[in-house]
Design a protein that fits this description.
This protein is an alpha/beta fold. The chain has helices at residues 14-32, 44-51, 57-65, 77-80, 89-99, 123-126, 163-178, 194-206, 220-229, 241-252, 292-306, 309-324, 330-333, 341-351, and strands spanning 2-10, 35-40, 68-73, 102-110, 130-136, 146-148, 155-157, 183-188, 214-219, 236-239, 262-267, 271-275. The chain has a ten-stranded mixed β-sheet with strand order 2-1-3-12-11-4-5-10-8-9, sandwiched between helices. Strands 6-7 form a two-stranded antiparallel sheet. The chain is globular and about 55 Å long. Bound molecules: 3-isopropylmalic acid and manganese (II) ion. Residues 75, 90, 93, 245 line the site of 3-isopropylmalic acid (IPM). Its cofactor is Mg(2+); Mn(2+).
Length: 352
């Protein structure tokens, strides 16, 4: 099979972790007789430096022409402490999500048997956790109207959702739940927010089409608590953009390192695969970042974008083997030897 993949390495540790995912993907392609054509494109602060904007048209064209996009990370600290900066790397990410129609962000959280004691949460709480947070990604407060009063002392951001946006996301949630343990949790703040009441009403109306799925409706504050108390009780959770942003960072703690969790964003035009961690600028260029979240994102890409399940499974197996054998970066090494980012990538590619 011929796989056309756009490669957006981005900023910080992005290029280093992307390199490892490319090595592993190429090894898989070789083994299964696929031909991957990678097309690199600029994004984030790297694109601002090169062409003055974080998601240039040339990058968009490359993404639109590709079968899938593999993405590293974007963000640079020089923008974080400058609230007046007119162009920010994150704008590129949001523009890309909107332009590619990436409306559903799939963020799984699971535990690795060999790492269970790495989690700050007790083993008995997290054992058996295997959940997916399905985050709406192109609506809500991220894309609502925002502004400042003339004197600059009042600011507003608005959250808007349409029924169609909720239906499209919830449909994926129901379908995903059908292939798993048939439990769906709709996370909202319907005791306060009108958009949440629309979400709840819309999902309730869809229940009749999926009689086998048990749906629960929970407030986001309560879910934030239960996620660290009883994460194994959840299966598929659906939620709006900002709640999903916050809950997925929280959920990543369960697995023991933010460097482990992959994600995919399902889109109207193409789909995108990326680690859930950020650009980790303190580690950039040091060859110390954990590449596994990106490698596992490549596994999701093989399976979800190309239907290549066996290839994806092989990547996951080799990742599990590396963890079990302690071929890990410093975030997971504890008192044992820490391997470099590139060494972990080489080891994985060799073991494919
Ligand atoms: C994420 C990130 C982004 C978001 C930022 C970088 C804009 O935190 O992908 O979760 O808030 O969506
Ligand atoms: Mn986030």
């Amino acid at each position: 099979m011929k796989l056309n993949i756009a490669l957006l390495a981005g900023d910080g540790i992005g290029p280093e972790v992307i390199d490892q995912a490319v090595k592993v993907s190429n090894a898989v392609a070789k083994k299964f007789n696929h031909e991957i054509s990678w097309t690199a494109a600029l994004t984030g602060a790297a694109a601002i430096d090169a062409v003055g904007e974080p998601y240039p048209d040339s990058t968009h064209e490359i993404c639109m022409a590709a079968d899938a996009v593999l993405f590293g990370a974007i963000g640079h600290p020089r923008f974080d402490n400058d609230p007046t900066a007119k162009v920010r790397p994150e704008q590129g990410l949001l523009k890309m999500r909107k332009a590619l129609g990436l409306y559903a962000n799939v963020r799984p959280t699971f535990t690795f048997p060999s790492l269970i004691d790495n989690s700050p949460l007790k083993r008995e709480r997290i054992e058996g956790t295997d959940l997916i947070i399905l985050r709406e990604l192109t609506g809500g407060i991220y894309f609502g109207e925002r502004g400042r009063s003339e004197d600059g002392n009042t600011a507003f951001d608005t959250c808007t959702y349409t029924k169609d946006e909720v239906v499209r996301l919830a449909k994926l949630g129901f379908e995903m739940a059908m292939t798993r343990s048939k439990k769906l949790c709709c996370v909202d703040k319907a005791n306060v927010l009108e958009t949440s009441r629309l979400w709840r009403q819309t999902v309730q109306a869809m229940e009749k089409d999926y009689p086998e799925v048990t749906v629960s409706y929970e407030f986001v504050d309560a879910v934030a608590m239960r996620l660290v108390q009883w994460p194994a009780s959840y299966d598929v959770l659906i939620t709006e953009n900002l709640f999903g942003d916050i809950l997925t960072d929280e959920a990543s703690v369960i697995s023991g390192s933010m460097g482990l969790m992959p994600s995919s964003s399902i889109g109207v035009h193409t789909s995108l695969f990326e680690p859930i961690h950020g650009s980790y600028p303190q580690a950039a260029g040091k060859d110390i970042a954990n590449p596994l979240a990106t490698v596992l994102s490549a596994a999701m890409m093989f399976e979800d974008a190309f239907g290549l399940k066996e290839e994806a499974e092989l990547i996951r197996e080799v990742v599990n083997k590396s963890l079990a054998e302690g071929i890990v970066t410093e975030d997971l090494a504890g008192k044992n030897k820490a391997y470099k980012t590139s060494e972990v990538g080489d080891w994985l590619a060799k073991n494919i």
